[in-house]
Design brief:
This protein is an all-alpha fold. It has two domains: about 1-105 and about 135-240, no CATH class; about 245-405, no CATH class. It is built from 22 helices and two strands. It has helices spanning about 1-5, 5-15, 25-35, 50-70, 80-105, 110-120, 125-130, 135-155, 160-175, 185-190, 200-205, 210-220, 225-235, 255-260, 265-270, 270-280, 280-285, 285-305, 325-340, 345-370, 380-385, 405, and strands at about 35, 45. A hairpin with a 5-residue loop joins β1 and β2 (about 45). α6 (about 110-120) packs across α19 (about 325-340), α9 packs parallel to α12 (about 210-220) and α16 crosses α19.
């Protein structure tokens, strides 16, 4: 259930965000709460509370059921676990729902259906929806889907409440993972068919300057509980809880993050090659999307692969990329829309998409069974996993784990 969830039992069960009185076995303390020692000697959650906020309704339902069905009221019994899984499935569904609404404005129902099925079953979104449900990415997928739909909706009809909700969603996305504040570039750079350039977009914002000013304030609302928490426990309004972990801006590991067998995005999620190919089609099909995606994608890639742990720990594939799948769905749909105009290309794309789905489900199953290594997959190990491979070796000998010590110094860890 993870550290993101731990705010909920600490607050709602034990009433102890300081973690000083939480009755949990010392051996499980680090595993469940993932705390960090502050300079004043107290304990501080390493992660922020955004996921806990989104999970709160499901936690309270589990709390109610536990109290009335005579289950342990500890935040970690089976009822709590089931509700945490249901929470991830719930937000994944609504993420796909809002993404469908956005895509349907530009593409046929057939293309939209293929894109949604491919995203769910052909990418690591599937794994984080049904397996490792305590991570942030399904929740961010939902929020970015909602943010994208609100962006399109506001440009179509500029109601103040839409801009306020946009700011609130962006604030919550930022609270969950601060680097995701760059998602706001999509709104700033997006232009609908009535706007000929960025000057027109700037003038549109000026026409709604009061709403923009109010939205700027609303953006900070989701951040306030976190700031109060940090100040209460450490005396600092902004507290860096990732001590010893840094971004290396001059040493980004972009090539490894995209193409390595350890976690390379385009190796483990080959479906997204279609999305990249679709970028060249946006100028004719969806011109307003071209600039925001061409700016956002490299900025986002640069940021996430400048982090010392470029492989992002355990799990399946390059999980931070899930956060921008709702935006990449548009070039993916553009590629499919053009390909489906040819009978041969249509069959080829559908066949490849089906292959990518089966490959993703195959890899997911291997990881769930503990056969696929969570971050040490080498080229040899990758190909050994397929039926009929000819490599005759103990799988353990093919594992190549990145060195954490070297990575924390800004190196790849694979030397």
């Amino acid at each position: 259930m993870g550290a993101y969830y731990a705010y909920l039992p600490a607050y709602h069960v034990w009433g102890d965000l300081t973690l000083e009185k939480t009755p949990i076995e010392p051996a499980l303390f680090e595993r469940f709460y993932y705390p960090r020692a502050a300079e004043n000697g107290g304990w501080v959650f390493k992660t922020t509370m955004g996921i806990a906020i989104l999970q709160t309704p499901f936690f309270l339902i589990a709390q109610f059921l536990s109290l009335n069905l005579d289950y342990p009221v500890d935040g970690y019994s089976s009822i709590y676990r089931y509700m945490a899984v249901f929470s991830a499935i719930f937000y994944s569904f609504w993420g796909l729902f809002f993404l469908r609404r956005s895509l349907s404005l530009f593409f046929s129902d057939f293309v939209v259906s293929i894109v949604l099925v491919s995203l769910l079953l052909g990418t690591n979104l599937y794994y984080y929806t049904f397996y490792e449900t305590g991570m942030t990415h399904v929740y961010t997928f939902f929020l970015v889907s909602l943010f994208t739909w609100l962006t399109l909706s506001w440009h179509w009809k500029s109601k103040p409440w839409k801009l306020i909700l946009l700011a609130l969603v962006l604030g919550l996305v930022t609270l969950i993972r601060p680097v995701n504040v760059c998602i706001g570039l999509f709104f700033l750079l997006y232009r609908d068919k009535n706007q000929n350039g960025l000057v027109a977009k700037f003038n549109l914002l000026l026409q709604h300057k009061l709403s923009v000013a109010l939205a700027a304030g609303v953006f900070f609302l989701p951040l306030i509980p976190q700031l109060l928490y940090w100040h209460h426990l450490t005396g600092e309004w902004f507290y860096y809880s990732y001590k010893g972990e840094y971004f290396y801006w001059l040493k980004p590991k972009i090539w490894l993050g995209l193409f390595s067998y350890q976690k390379g995005w385009l190796v483990w999620t080959p479906l997204m090659w279609f999305a990249l190919l679709g970028l060249v089609l946006l100028r004719k099909q969806l011109k307003g999307f071209l600039l925001p995606i061409l700016v956002l994608l490299p900025v986002y890639v640069y940021i996430i692969f400048s982090w010392w742990c470029w492989w992002y720990g355990g799990g399946f594939g390059m999980r931070p990329m899930i956060d921008i799948y709702p935006i990449l769905a548009f070039p993916l749909a553009a590629f499919m829309e053009v390909a489906f105009q040819s009978k041969f290309a249509r069959k080829a794309v559908i066949s490849f998409s089906l292959f990518f789905i089966l490959l993703n489900l195959f890899h997911t199953d291997l990881l769930a069974k503990g056969i696929l290594h969570w971050h040490g997959t080498s080229k040899a190990l990758y190909w050994e996993l397929f039926p009929g491979s000819i490599i005759d070796a103990d799988l353990e000998t093919l594992i190549e784990e990145p060195s954490v010590e070297k990575a924390k110094q800004g190196e790849s860890g694979l030397d």
